[in-house]
Queue: 2 jobs
Job 1
Amino acid sequence: MLKVGLIGAGKMGISHLAILGANSRVEIVGVCDTSKIVLDVLNKYSGFNCFTDYIKMVEETRPDAVIVAVPTKFHFVMVKELLVRGIHVFAEKPFCLNPIQSEELVQLAKSKGLVNQVGYHNKFVGTFKEVKKLVKAGYLGKIEHFQGEAYGPVVVKKKGETWRSDPLEGGGCLMDYASHVIDLLIDILDPIVSSKGSILKSIYSKNVDDEVYALVELSSKVNGFLSVNWSDETYRKMSTSVTIIGSKGKIVSDANEFKIYFKTDHVPEGYSMGWNVKYVTDLTSQVDFYLRGEEYSAQLDYFVAAALGTGPNSINTFESACLTDRAISIIKNKAK
Amino acid sequence: MERIIFGDNQFFAVNHISDEKSRAQAIKFKDDSAIIKTLDFARDAGINSFMCTTHNRISKICDIIRSDPKKYQNFQIYPCMPYAHKYANAVTELGITGTLKQYVPGNFFGSLYKGGVAFLSKDFLSIMELLIDAEMKMFRGINTPVIFLQNVITDLLIGLGMTDFLVGFAKHIEKKYNTEAGFITMNLPKLLPMLEKGGIRNPIICASINKINFRMSGGKDLYEKTLKEGKARVIAMQVLGGGSIPPREALEYVSTLPNVESILFGASSKENIDNTVSIIKNFDRLKENKKLTTNHLVSTVQ
């Protein structure tokens, strides 16, 4: 049994709490938030032990692991505090406000030998897992170019002031939305080392960017393009996609549909020359409890297994999230 | 409940396997007349039950239905609430408190702050009841024999162990609308014992049930075992596994399962609607014939 605490019962925090609540290997020992109304509901109807001070929660309930789902600006201080106390940490994305902070946490987690994970859930989506598998196995040949796109209807009118609309708290389309596809591309290909040009623009928001366009270069010298807009109401919900072009073929994939074109008959089992289409239904493993998408349960099952010492801790580590924070910082600086 | 229920995913660009198809659907069903035309195809095929989310556009469809009582005299709607993306987007934009302020009708929320802790501790179920009533407004005057709680909320409540809200939903539906509550879920094996514990016997549950084990949390075997026990009135949804199973194969599986009372499906074209209905009817006939033959053999042997 893993004793887990949660800090931050907002949209992601409550979703994590429900998934962990249904996990037979987990005992929720405490929940911390600043909203009285949320804590009242969670205490009265779920019977959770609730706190408004996370240090108090940690000291009183002695969790083995903690989920940190508060705005990004609080991540550094809280995660550091938890690691110092020898607690395994799952933090929401984006990881830190700048890569210097992320790097410090990477080193601290390493030196303490603690399980560390960041909530970039796309890496647990069946189609994107297949993209990575085939690219890493070399089936696309030499990578020539890539595109990463994400569109959705998050900010579609001029109003609403939450932490997502404050650049100092980790808000904005680049940090909150584009980070997903940046993280995915780095994982499938290589780290982003420079930007040849970046545009961050506001459509509705007063203080933050609503769209991001950037031409970036990877450590392998491959160039690619990012196009992300969270004010696109033609999408019902977030749609993330990657296109990867190589000397032997091309992949176009989103979270539902995986398409690959092979120029030759050097193909993996189950594929043939020309276009091949697979669906998330073919590529997704069943989870024990489903809420909003298999990937949300899969990432927490993975974290729980690692913290219990029964599984690996190599996907979505602080180290990989630090590469993403670095890329965000590169794109942001180029746009200034 | 009727054996075949028509769903609404296709009208609102919900497609589990392709963003391209989803966009094509959004274009096809841009006008309400396109939705009505497809509903007419379903009615022509003998389907009189329409299960739909409380999407803003459904209120316009309800206006059309109300305006022609003769045409729709046998037509009934199974509302599913809430339309989750409406709230999810609002929570992202306004936070949880901001969302409640926006959607809880009247000045109720303001009075919550004034009322203090004692008042608060009693009234979260009342907030839920107010939200239900707000969602139900669009269906006034329309026959709604079952009112469903949408899967994101049902499953969230399961995970949080909030049996009181599941039971509270059922009680309010029964009391205020004099009808039955239903629950949509991706976690049938976990939901059923929770409802039973809350005193709800033989509940109506709509769950993903298909040949390829898609969104059947805990696995197909556990679902089949739960169905065999026959302790719920089950509606099978996502029977085509998001469109990745050939229809005949998909419908054979679900038609022959025990204790699946109804099958929910959605389609955009007349051809697909007619086809699906005729395949289901065909398998039902085969099942009935088999039952009759078995009964006949048993009585002959006796």
Job 2
Amino acid sequence: MTFFIWGVLPYVVLLILISGLTWRYKYDQFGWTTRSSQLYESRILKIASPIFHFALLAVFIGHLVGLLVPKAFTDWAGLSQEMYHLGAFYGGGLAGLALAVALGMLIWRRRRTGRVFKATTANDKFMYLVLAIVIILGLLATFTGETHLNGEHHNYRETVSVWFRSMVIFQPDVAPMAASTWQFKAHVFFGLFLFAITPFTRLVHAFTAPLHYLFRPYIVYRSRDTSKARQVSAGGRGWDPVGTSDRDKGRR
Amino acid sequence: MRVMAQVSMVMNLDKCIGCHTCSVTCKQAWTNRAGTEYVWFNNVETRPGLGYPRTYEDQDKWQGGWVRTKSGRLKLKSGGRFKKLLSIFASPVQPGLDDYYEPWTYDYENLIQSPLTDDFPVARPKSLITGENMAIKASANWDDALGGIHETIHQDPVIAKLRKESNDKIMAEYEKTFMFFVPRICEHCLNPSCMAACPSGAIYKREEDGIVLIDQDRCRGWRQCVTGCPYKKVYFNHRTGKAEKCHFCYPRIEVGLPTVCSETCVGRLRYIGIVFYDADRVTEAAAVEDPKDLYEAQLDIMLDPRDPEVIAAARANGIADDWIEAAQKSPIYALCKYFKVALPLHPEYRTMPMVWYIPPLSPVVDLLQEQGHDAEAAGNLFGAIDALRIPVEYLAELFTAGDSAVVTGVLQKLAAMRAYMRDITLGRPGDEEIAEAVGMTGGAMEQMYRLLAIAKYNERYVIPKAHVEQAHNLEEMGCSVNFDGDPAFDEPYGGSSGKPVPVTIQSFNAMKAHRDDESMT
């Protein structure tokens, strides 16, 4: 069971993520959007959304560093475990708190603004729930995950990170992960779940971050003939039929 | 010189009676879907007035269009590429639904279902967004025909600017003396700032006819185009999460039909034709230093389709002969560059708009008539144009970045035509002096009269058909023989022709589209 959860499941999730994204990119270009609600409400969004996204970027970089940089390397570089931990605890904790607060604001806005709430699908609600669980568990892991229930000291860089790197090089070593605290286990488990549902939610917008905007020419010419040959969205996706009410829960 | 063709439009504002038929037929054709109830690809605004969305012309607030930097380059007013990417998580200046209006319907059912009571049943307005009862506070033409103008006139960005310049003198009298309607569609600019603002690169200008379109499959809903467009003619479909805009009825244009708004225009005030322009000089023209020179700069890059050099360059760039012929007959070229009576809307945004307007002489004529003067006499009209400073300056803010000399010139031409043609109509010889006074000849006066007043259908709309044959042939060839570089093979599964392919969903759809597309048979 341990091996299945920490040795097999992550690869299954990776497979779902990649194949799901590929499938959706190929067949649902039309649905590939954030479905912004800024038209309905802008005041709270303008504060909360940038905080959320920048905090998310910070947290993402923190995860990369924590998971990929071996403890041996920082030891060799002369960075003591205490220093490292302080940085991770306060830096990561701060970013995580900002993330949680901003997500709270966004969910509150979504619930309390009638227009926004009416445009929220069941898919969105489920996604927000999973996202919130992952973030809260992540905060728990950061603040309380350094001691086992029996009071034993725990350092995720010797458990979770080792496991993660073993997964990256396809030599699964589940023992370190199994030795981490429940907070980390739960955070990783729900994190995996979030990745698995990502291709099927609005979160896909992250995978088309428009970095090429920095390099493309301002004016785009395109020939009519080539545009006609493109057929990307699968049948069924597209504008709602005439007469569909805005408040229909039909397809989105 | 890189000659490109641009489908463009001219509207003769003197003829617009503000009936909104264009808006309604456009809406019925294109934006009667969920998520676009508040969207009007075509709307008609009363001037003076706030426009739609309200005060959209106030670019200090809405940050649309381009600005010229000190070094003489063009920059988006809302910021450079880095700034745009950094602020992508919440668009800093996007009009909210309340800046347009909250769309609504009425509870008609209540009229029928209501039991017998002492009171009349009413149909209450219900929001189309939330379904709740709502108080209607605005619409796309809430200040139609100067409705409530005494309260809102100070918010009209053009008035605000004029007032600043002329120290508050202008208010009282003129709201009685002039009013006109401005129908607006997407300008299909030569230098579109919506396109430049799009992070995904989903907005493109068609090489063949210059129509600006949004690829619905590539749009990711970042909403920067809404900010980028100074005319606020790109809209966010809040249901699909994608941007949508006027597409110049391209399915109709491709088969040689005018747009829905033009076809149904009661006043027959719209003209459609193609214009050749030099694509290599667009940026240079859009970056001239003085905004008042932008009008001339744009005229300058419109090319004479009878010039043999231009014709040769057009052919070299793959423009077909029937298109060249259409460009020569184009009413747009005639009105913009030959008669020089049409003007661009807000050239100071530096987007090089391609829907132009003939400014209305009617405010002047109406005033003369009301005061008991002969509103057909050239002398009276010329005098009135000079004396009526405010309407002229207002028009100048709309059409020439504030250069009232240009507007005066156009109005004088229109006035001269009126006076000249009165003589002809009354069986007298035309007075060449009137024509000369505005730098024209009697012959040109009559030509202009024919185009503006008689306005025959086939002279108003000179629309060459799109050349679909070639693309179609290429595709058909793929069925029997495979060519390297055949467009049909750009797709991994070969689209609708070529090698035997497994029956995927995609090829099924391609086949179905092929079968249903009548132009392919």
